[in-house]
Write a structure and sequence with these properties.
With 360 residues, this protein is α/β, with parallel strands linked by helices. It has 2 domains: 228 residues, 3-Layer(aba) Sandwich (Phosphatidylinositol Transfer Protein Sec14p), CATH 3.40.525; 101 residues. Helix content is 43%, strand content 9%. It contains 15 helices and 7 strands. α3 packs across α6, α7 runs antiparallel to α13 and α8 runs parallel beside α9. The termini are far apart.
Length: 360
């Protein structure tokens, strides 16, 4: 089962609809929004360094938008994400651990952005090369963290280009879709700006009708269907991308294709920049773009356990419905341990917020 197809499945819809939160968000003044951000930060309380860096105003704002600006719901969501990040340690995943999952180019970050300057991830479900659910989810998380690392200072969302070439029914799994939806919706809120489904087959529509019940409207409404033989939908590509840089697989003029050797070097360089973002440096949303040219070779022998069967070394722990590889306790610092315990001990349903007082 492909994490690429799961990545795509959690964003598909039959059309675009207005988010139900837009009206309420637009009714809030900047001062009122800042008050809610400050209240969430107060409810979360003191945190270890990495988690504190994660809780920027922009990050808290994304959680609030994802929960219709409900302080109580956004705080609960943020605390769950902080606990997940403290245990799963997504910022510590490195290329050597996920390299085997990436070999076929089933998910990769392009060396171009859209006309709005947004990072672009390409996904090819037919290029699946692993049976490990844990390995696929871990590579998915690595790709998300890498995309965020490469955001331009004025952007906090990305574009997904999903190529359906060679797609068939064997690439569909509701189980992994549900787990993937949890990761993307619960731990990366408001990171998707647009998902483009390129030449999706007709038989996929009935499956999508069943799969989208796992998703929130704000997630599955961010989608556009594009067909290479329909001029009106191809105009979407022309409006969003410089066709000279867009890959030929999506109707562009770039015929270079995916090169795992060059891509591996790009990712290794990005890995070197990642630690500085979590040691008091700048937030990922304002990280500079790296150089995108490289010619060094890829060493497939440095692969991890990610290609193992999902039945091998299965971790019995579950975080909000997601089977994950939880970091060993000895890898947690006392500060992280304290932070996790603090998050676990908070009963959000008992927290009285200014919202509750206002409605009381």
């Amino acid at each position: 089962m492909s994490s690429t197809i799961d990545f795509m499945e959690v964003t598909m819809s039959e059309g675009l609809k207005k988010s139900p939160s837009n009206g309420f968000e637009n009714s809030l003044t900047p001062e009122e929004q800042q008050e809610k951000i400050n209240e969430v930060r107060r409810l979360v309380g003191p945190l270890p360094e990495k988690l504190s860096i994660y809780c920027s105003d922009a990050s808290i704002s994304r959680h609030l938008r994802a929960r219709n600006w409900s302080v109580k719901k956004a705080t609960k969501m943020l605390k769950e994400t902080l606990k997940w990040r403290a245990q799963y340690k997504p910022e510590e995943i490195r290329w050597e651990e996920v390299a085997r999952e990436a070999e076929t180019g089933k998910i990769y970050r392009t060396n171009y952005v859209d006309r709005h300057g947004r990072t672009v991830l390409v996904m090819r479900p037919s290029c699946q090369n692993s049976k490990s659910t844990k390995g696929q989810i871990r590579y998915l998380v690595y790709c998300m963290e890498n995309a965020i690392l490469n955001f331009s200072p004025d952007q906090e969302q990305m574009v997904w280009l999903i190529d359906f070439h060679g797609f068939n029914l064997s690439h569909i799994s509701l189980k992994v879709t549900k787990e993937t939806a949890h990761v993307l919706q619960d731990h990366y809120p408001e990171r998707l700006g647009l998902a483009i489904l390129y030449n999706p087959p007709k038989f996929f529509e009935p499956f999508w009708m069943a799969a989208k019940v796992f998703l929130e409207p704000k997630t599955y409404n961010k989608v556009k269907f594009v067909y290479s033989n329909e001029v009106n939908t191809m105009k979407i590509m022309e409006d969003l991308f410089d066709m000279n840089h867009l890959e030929s697989a999506f109707g562009g003029k770039d015929n270079s294709g995916f090169d795992i050797s060059k891509y591996a070097e790009r990712m290794k360089e990005d890995d070197k920049r990642m630690p500085s973002l979590w040691t008091g440096g700048s937030h990922p949303s304002v990280a500079p773009q790296p150089a995108l040219t490289s010619t060094a070779s890829f060493d497939a022998s440095k692969d991890s356990h990610s290609d193992a069967s999902e039945n091998d070394e299965t971790d019995s722990s579950q975080l909000h419905g997601i089977n994950t590889e939880i970091a060993s306790p000895e890898h947690n610092t006392p500060a992280i341990d304290s932070g996790i315990k603090g998050l676990e001990n908070v009963h959000l349903e008992e927290v009285t917020t200014q919202e509750d007082q206002a409605h009381g």
